[in-house]
Amino acid sequence: MRSGFLAAALTALFISAAKAAPCEQQTYRGADYIVCGFDPQSDEIRLFLKDEDGAPWRHFNFLKESLGADGEQLIFAMNAGMYHEDRSPVGLYIEASDELSSINTNDGPGNFHLKPNGIFYVAQDGRAFVEETGVYLKIKQPPPRHATQSGPMLVIGGDIHPRFLPESTSLKRRNGVGVTDEGDVFFVLADSPVRFYDFASFFRDELKTQNALYLDGTISRLYAPELDRNDPGLAMGPIVGVVTSGD
């Protein structure tokens, strides 16, 4: 009886600690990664594009202060998708059920157009998904609460993007998002320069995400207070954040 109570107490303590510290550092194939995991059914994942004055967010601190004024707390944030020079999204962008930028199926240069590209979204029922853009277009469902289009896809139905090369010499900082079959969401920042192939392999083989999406590259930034991370830089495009009440 006593041992069962102790085990239950330790389990509760572990869960509490995990909730308090969603981000952790990992090493894979000699590269350093930061992995932030969330359950979208209990953790509120949102997208943010502009501040109250209609300007791009210049720093995570400004978003944190804005949420704090409404009695909410920012516990995680990361840049979340490709954008133009004026910081407007290149592809689909939906925030709080409001579509601010339409889906982009055009061909073109750069990572966004290294097809297939894809969409990370939070559905109206709170579940989160990563889908290849063509698949997303065929899904018959209400428009999601939040969505951001980026590219390329990293992992597609358990397969690494066919254009990625294991021997590529293009090594860069990268960030992305993947969703497991159980519905857990992993946001990942490669703190070491990595090739696309290894970044995708980390999502598929270590995090077990059947679908994963590249969000951005060298300019990737992270807000993770438990790791003392609040990366500075230029004004951002789309941001993904996890928000709780201020209690």
Strands ordered across the widest β-sheet: 1-2-13-12-14-10-11
Assembly type of the chains comes to single chain
Strand content: 35-45%
Put simply, the count of helices is 4
Distance linking N and C termini:
34 Å
Global morphology: globular
Rounded radius of gyration (Å): 18 Å
Report the average pLDDT across residues.
Answer: 92
Written as H for each helix and E for each strand, in order along the chain, the element string is HEEEHEEEEEHEEEEEHEEEE
Stretches where pLDDT falls below 50 for ≥5 residues? Answer: 1-19
Major pleated sheet: 7 strands, antiparallel
Tally of distinct domains = 1
What proportion of the residues is helical, as a percent range? 10-25%
Chart the SSEs and their pairings:
Elements: H1 2-20, E1 23-28, E2 31-38, E3 44-48, H2 60-69, E4 72-79, E5 93-95, E6 98-101, E7 118-122, E8 128-132, H3 133-138, E9 146-150, E10 153-156, E11 159-160, E12 172-180, E13 185-194, H4 196-206, E14 209-216, E15 222-224, E16 229-230, E17 239-245
Antiparallel strand pairs: 1-2, 2-13, 3-17, 4-15, 4-17, 5-6, 5-9, 7-8, 7-9, 10-11, 10-14, 12-13, 12-14, 15-16
